[in-house]
Every structure is written in C-alpha cells, then in structure tokens.
Amino acid sequence: MRIVWLAVNASHAHASLALPLLHLACSAQGELAWEAVSSTLHDDPGALAAAVVAREPDVVAATLYLFNSGLVLETLSRVKALRPGCTTIVGGPECLGEVGDLFARHPWVDLAVRGEGEAVLPELLERLRRGAAPVGLRGVCWRAADGTLHDDSSRAVSRSWPTAPAPCRSPFFDTSRAFVQIETSRGCRGACAYCTSCRDLPLRQRPLAAIRDELAALRDRGVREVRVLDRTFNAPAGRAGDLLALFLDEFPSMRFHLEIDPAGLSRGLRERLRRAAPGALHLEAGLQTTAPRALAACGRHADPARALDGLRFLVHETALPTHVDL
Length: 326
Prior knowledge:
This protein is α/β, with parallel strands linked by helices. The chain has helices spanning 18-25, 45-53, 69-82, 100-105, 121-130, 208-220, 237-250, 267-275, 292-297, 304-317; strands spanning 2-9, 33-40, 59-63, 87-91, 111-113, 140-143, 149-150, 180-182, 185-186, 204-205, 225-228, 255-260, 281-286, 322-325. It has ten helices and 14 strands.
C-alpha cells in the first residue's frame, strides 16, 4: 500500500511533527510504502495534486490546520478527480469538533480522524488494506459507499505516547529548517474555551531520560534551535525546574523556545530563569487578557496581578527575550 503524506506548512521554516509521529507508529507494518509531498501556503493546488498523483498513491493523508485547510482540501479535490480509487484521510485540529459539515462540503474526503492519529492509524491502514470498514475505531469518522456518515463522536487518545520513539527517529523528521519542535508533555490542566489541548485528554509527560536521549540525537544532527510544544511549560513547576536544568546545564549549545504562564513562576523557577545565560531561552508568555470578565467568559482561571508581576520579573530580572500573547 502506497501512502502519500501531503504536508502543507505555514512557511519553509516550519515542519509539522505529524508525519514522523505517524510514520513511526506504523513502522511495524512492513507492507506500507510512505512518501511525502511538502509545500507551503504559496503553492498551487493543481501543481501539488500533480505531484501527489505522480506517486500513484493508494492513500493520501494530510493534517488540517486553520491556516492550511483551504489549500489542502482544494488539492485533495484534484487528487480525487485524477485518481478516484485512492482513499483520502484528514486529521488535525480542524477535525476535533463536529465533522459533518466537513464531509458535506467536501465529498472527496473519505475519512477523518478526531484526536491523536498514532492511536488508530496503524489499524485503520490495515483495515483499508483488507478492504474492511473501520467500525469501532475510536475517533475515526468515515463516509460509507452509500454516502452515510459514520461518526460516534469519540476521540482517539495515544496512551502509549510517553514511551513512544522520538519523532527524530523517523527518516521524515526534517532537521534542515530553522528550528525543530519537540513535545515533553501533551494535554493541559486548564479549561480555556478557545483551546483544544485540555479537551478529553489527560495530561501526559515523557520521562526525562527519553527527553535527554531525544535532545542528544538532535544535537548530534546539528540542531541548535528547539521549540517546545508543551502548552504550559511551567505547569507543574517542579517538572519545569527539572527540564530547565536539563536544557540549560546539559545542552547549552541549544536555544529553547518555551510557552509559559507568567502567573505561575515559583521562587525556584525565578531563580533558575534569573541565572540563565542571555538568549538561552526565548519565552512566550501567555497573558491573553487582564480583563476579569473576559477571563471568566473564556474559562481561563488566571490572576492578572500575579501575571503582571511575573512579566515584570521576566523583563527586568532576566536576560531572556520575552514576548507576550494578548
């Protein structure tokens, strides 16, 4: 079975982790042949479709983000017209909610995965190879031959993710970009209404030893800029302190981009950040708003006074570049 992954990134600097993660999850299935077609938002859907079809795929898969959905879906419509026998699968943030409208507006989409694809893609591809329906697979929504939409509203969750191989172990992990991305945790204990990270997902954390091995592999491949995808790096504070020690003490040649809650800077974290070398970290501080009514309306449990105090500390008492999300 030939699988072509259509990767439409925001720019040439970005490379999603979706392909290497899913490729590794399916690595035990030797009968699968994977290829990738990568692009940015500036590419033409006709040219992209031609590149995909030239690889004679049995399955075409892609991640839908808010920014790339239009181009991806336009490309898939052309792929389906040129190669009607192939199966199209989409997933990602744009599939986390109700997918009925997605299927109704885009009849060339065959399946959508709601949640973490690593949990279901190996079995889904095996079902497709055997010509069997994906009945009972959590998070998998599909259109039957008679047009009926099957969706049980479930969401796929990868319970094995904390001990899964690091994405950089896949040949599809790209270290040629300006930076790479890593995850040390998934999920969030917050309840912000505008975010999907906290919905139906437990907070899971990768062991420090596994993170150390991943960073060592990246360092050996010449990586110097690392963006940590954890939704709130400093929650909980104790683990954040352990990670900062790992980053700053064991990998001083690398620069780490972290998303933090400025209201959650413990005394220990402040001391660690105060001692960090200039530029060793780039901090993205999630203030969002200081308006109490807005905070309450979106379910964000935050103390504006504590957040502003944390920002004052970051700006005046560290040598770290900090930008603030509003």
